[in-house]
Amino acid sequence: MTENDTPNVRDAISDLAISRSKLIPSEDSPGFLQIKYSGPKTNLQKLLHGSMNGLAPNSLRLANHSKRIQYRFRRIIKTCRKGVSLSEVEKRRFGIKKHCLVVLKETQPSTPLTLTDDIIHYSNPRILTVRECARIQTFPELVCLQGKYTTGGKMRTIECPRYTQVGNAVPPFLAEALGLALLELKRDIEK
Q1: Which residues contact residue 43 at a Cβ distance below 8 angstroms, ignoring those fewer than 6 apart?
Q2: Looking at domain 9-190, which of 3.40.50.300, 3.40.50.880, 3.10.340.11, 3.90.120.10 is its CATH number?
Q3: Where are the domains of the chain?
Q4: Which pLDDT does position 1 carry in this prediction?
Q5: I want to staple 122 with a disulfide (CB 3.0 to 4.6 A). Which of 93, 104, 129, 187 is the partner?
Q6: 161 phi, psi to nearest 5 deg
Q7: At 34, is the secondary structure helix, strand, or coil?
């Protein structure tokens, strides 16, 4: 990635791919595994890692997908278009009833991450971790996400789980760009 290039999905999360990382027991969820953090690799990862000096960010827990779901995800990754929502034909072929399901394309910017369990990793048969979603949204790794990972039913009106916290947020880099544009506009108006 050069200074003028738009970061892509690989720039954001390539260091957290299962194929490159060891899996360890989750620090905050018994019975789950998480990615063992080995440090940032790309310029974007280094920027978001900031002053953490190689310390692992939180929320690296992996979803516990069944073997059947992993198999389905492998087939989807191998046969479906990446970076766009699966077509109705593709969803029918795989028996998917979700409104939208996207396999990320590693060489492009991410699709919006509003419903984070509707996004499949570009090479690993799984949904993203909360930290991967936060990275794509440009959250600095010093931001420690708290609470349950997911929730459903009646609890959705009471709790705001980690995936929702990231999916509902304005990406920090976008917020900064909008703020700078507004300041520039204000300066122009005051001239």
Answers
A1: 1, 11
A2: 3.90.120.10
A3: 9-190
A4: 42
A5: 104
A6: -65, 170
A7: strand
Q: Who contacts 33 (Cβ-Cβ below 8 Å, separation ≥6)?
A: 23, 24, 25, 26, 61, 62
The answer to whether the CB of 127 falls within 8 A of the CB of 163 is no
Tokens read off for 131: 């930290």
* DSSP designation for 167: H
Closest listed residue to residue 37, CA positions, set 11, 19, 8, 57: 57
CA geometry: angle 179, 181, 182, nearest 5 deg: 65
What is the model's pLDDT at position 113? 72
pLDDT at 3 over 50: no
pTM over 0.85: yes
